[in-house]
Amino acid sequence: MKTVPSDGPAAAPSRRRRGASGSAAIVVVAGAILALLVFLALFADLVSPYDPLRQNLIASLQWPSAAHWLGTDDLGRDVLSRLIHGCRIAVIAAGEATTIAILIGVPIGLFIGYRGGWWDWVVMRVVEAVVSIPGIMVAIVILALLGTGLHKAMIALGILFSTSFLRLARGVVLAEREEVYVRSARVVGASGGRILLGHILPNIAPPLIVQTTLTVGAVLLAEAGLSFIGLGVQPPDASWGTMLSTAAAFMDLHWFLAIPPGIAIILTVLSINLIGDVIRDGVGRGITVAARQDAPVASFAALADVAPSAAALPPPRPDEVLRVEGLRVTVSTADGGELPLISDLSLSISKGETLGLVGESGSGKTLTGLAILGLTSVALRTTHGSIVLNGRDLRTLPRRRIEEVRGNEVAMVFQDPTTSLNPAFTVGSQIAEVLRAKHGLSKSAAWARTVELIDRVGIPRPGERARAFPHELSGGMAQRIAIARALSCNPSLLIADEPTTALDVTVQQEILDLFRDLQAEFGMAILFVTHDLAVAADICDRISVMYAGEMVEMAEVDALFARPRHPYTRGLLSAMPHASDRKPPLPTIRGSVPRPGTWPAGCRFSNRCDFKVAACERRIPLTGTDRLVRCIRADELVLEAAQ
Amino acid sequence: MLRLIVQRLLALIPLLFIVSVMTFSFTSLLPSDPVDLILGETGTQEQHEMLRERMGLNEPIVVRYVQWLGRAVQGDLGTSFFNSVSVSTALMQRLPVTLSLTLVSALIAVVVGVAAGIAAALRPRSLIDRLATVGATFGQAIPNFWFGLLLVAIFAVNLRWFPATGFSPLSASPVDWLRSVTLPAIALGLSSSAAIARQVRSAMVGVLQQDYIRAARAQGLSSRRVILKHALTNAMVPVVAVLSFQITVLLGGALIVEQVFAINGLGTLAIGAVRQQDIPMIQGLVLVMVGLVVVVQLATDVIYGLLNPKARPS
Ligand code: SF4
Fold first, then answer.
1. What is the torsion angle, in degrees rounded to the nearest 10, for the CA atoms of residue A207, residue A213, residue A215 and residue A220?
2. Last residue of a domain, one of A280, A304, A327
3. Tens digits of residue pLDDT in A179-222
């Protein structure tokens, strides 16, 4: 029932395009870095200007120069040459450890996933144990058993990282085992191994690729770390980790030694991670592409600017609490345009009165309620109109003042009580918090008042229920709590957004009765948003019918039901289920509310209206004084709620 | 809450059992005979036999496991193969060092990560969001020990604000302790704060769209209260779930970062033990690590339960 889009409908695709070209550039750069790395690793001996091990003690710890582009280290060895040979170590390390991890992890994962039972239980407990210990400690333990050195370190890392491949492979097998076709293949008599190979390996490939990129990056960091602490590559061999280990000893004399290997590691890991992200997105997109909605393409230039029609302003009413005039809410689109969601909406409510705001989903009625509170989501803006509450225009107030008004003068009850109460706090504390923040009550006074309020909304054992968490209450009970919270500061206006829709039918009636009782006691005005005309007829004094972001009709309840004047209202009335007969109502309005941006240029109902004439192609004003209607043929048509 | 703790402890029993068996079996996995390791080539046949007898190596393996476990539970982790120091004494000396480094860096990671995550989530696609995203990407690619070297070069060697090396115990002087632990903790916490920032951002973006946030605003609560209390409490639920993993990562990272700052913690002990194949020491280290991880997991489970009432056993 939410009519608030979380983002501009047209905004997403172009952002996606921009993001795609950005990531394409990143992929090219990252790919180039990795290609360079592999090239240097392959041809290190040809490319590097010096022998990475040749010492020259006279020229030690030199800064970069023409002879030594990256300077020399403590033994006068050329840093650039050592860096290039480090590429080779990095590639070997990443390849070796990742291969070992895959070769150990995948077969075992496939096996235990397929076998299940004790094998699975024991291996998974061992995996859990290994994973719970810091990875570097696991590697250290394995190195203690194997001894140190590059290849042994890579075996250690391979064993360490095999756990993630193992879990991945097991997960895929478990998911696939459930698939019918695996079972049917077994019935046909294929052997266990053939089932695995035939059905599971193709499914494992995408996550395997993603996991591999993740592992390669992690292996490089871990290899550098192990070499740095002297457990991996052993001096004098050049690896980025050992180079940093040397650098660490000379930080006070020649800090530059730490820069080249550090940058090399960061660039490499960054490139791998970024490419991994892109691959992950690609694998993910294959799944989600179907769910993507196409953006509306229709032009909405025709509706871009419609001046508020002065004629349609409702006449002033006695005891007016809220008066909205010419309200317009827009969503900003990616091309900088503004797409209207609500246009030229005016209404007023008096003390003790209930105004119904009725329409199908997508008509903008919920959004109207939120716009009055100034609570539309970030992508939306209220561009025109005034919202005068108790004589003050809320749109002109600074944010802090509006925060004061909310709760004190206007409050809102939402559709789904189970999501409008914070799951992390007890329901009582959420009411008491409002009392303390808004009325400055002491903790104990706020709590006492909270229990009173909970009692007032008809909840038995209020003191005990106040200590319950939202998930421990039934929907009806939670909605009573939400109502108690909304009324805690005695607001003069209550906005109720479909407050009974999420509830059982029997509970609905109780909640409606509660609204009536509370209104009689507190005298607040209620703006009651609902799609359900029966509910509106029950509780409202007047009803405003909304369609495609504007009001199409407004009348006293009895008058509206006796003689609707707008074809849309008539359609809604005929669609109402009658309490007497159990037959489902006939869908008397074809189609559905067009989405913002696809509204017809003239009467917005014209594409669904049975009475459409040529004149309906123009914008239709809202006319009348006591009853308002936005239909050019309102006077000639005699509409009745179809039997 | 007590029930939750007991429940979790019971769930840990299989883990602890497996870890203890794995740890114990190091001795048998060792390619060389421990007696040879200790005595080297030098000892006589009789000396070898005597040591073998004294170390209980002639007993059946199950008996040895039970004996070893019994002693370990009482805090007796044996003696080092090499300098006849009691393993538990050595561990207890180093533990506060590594622990303070880990905890301070966890604190930094949480504070920085949560702050950056919130800032990014409040204004999606804004400059600060982009900066946080780029920062998080780099944060996960920069080796903590290299970042540590950089910090040493800038803040210790150049600016001389902090000592370049060493560790001062908290009990001796809190100020010196803080000075000695600041740079290593920042170096260590970098990548975790990046990971936490990512988590907080995505959780926060989701929570801010929830009805109860809109309802809290509709009630006129200040933005500050809505964000820091109502939104953050819920956004931290998934974050806390990864926090225990992050602390485990920090604990491992501490072993390496210690070397940058020449801090005599568990890392130095571990490296020495690996080089000498000092199995009792390695076993002790693993048990200490597992103990710490278990404590951290329990603590995060309790926080998780506090933040998320649905997770509490009723
Ligand atoms: S203006 Fe025309 S199209 Fe619109 S509701 Fe009236 S008759 Fe139908």
1. 180
2. A280
3. 645 556 555 555 555 665 666 777 788 888 888 888 898 899 98
Same domain? For B148 and B256 the reply is yes
B167 and B31 inside one domain: no
Give B-chain residues touching A372 at CB under 8 angstroms.
none
Provide ipTM, 2 decimals.
0.85
Closest-CA residue of chain A to B138? A270
Q: Of B55, B72, B87, which residue constitutes the final position of a domain?
A: B87
Query: Of the given ranges (A348-362, B163-177, B190-204), which has the lowest mean pLDDT?
Result: B163-177
Domain of residue B219: give its range: 94-311
CA distance A486 to chain B (A): 7
Q: Where are the alpha helices (DSSP H) in A363-504?
A: 365-373, 399-408, 417-420, 427-439, 443-456, 462-465, 475-487
pLDDT, one tens digit per residue, over B240-260 is 878 888 888 899 999 999 988
Q: Is residue B304 part of a domain?
A: yes
To test ligand 1's pocket by mutation, which of A570, A603, A638 has the most ligand atoms within 8 angstroms of CB? Answer: A603
From CA A230, how far away is CA A202, in angstroms rounded? 41
Instruction: Name every protein residue with a CB atom under 6 angstroms from any ligand 1 atom.
Output: A 567, 603, 605-606, 609, 611-612, 616, 620, 631-633
| Cis, bond preceding A236 (omega within 30 deg of 0) | yes
Q: Which of residues 105-124 of A touch B (CB under 8 A)?
A: none
| Digit-coded pLDDT (tens) for A267-304 | 999 898 888 878 777 765 443 333 333 333 333 333 33
Q: Count the domains in chain B.
A: 2
Query: How many structural domains compose chain A?
Result: 2
- CA-based R_g, chain B, Å: 24
Residue-wise pLDDT for B118-160, tens only, equals 988 888 778 888 888 888 888 888 998 899 888 888 887 878 8
Chain A, nearest residue to B258 by Cα: A229
Give φ, ψ of B84 to 5 degrees: 45, 30
Per DSSP, the three-state class of B252 is helix
Please tell me which of the candidates A136, A251, A265 has its beta carbon nearest to residue B255: A136
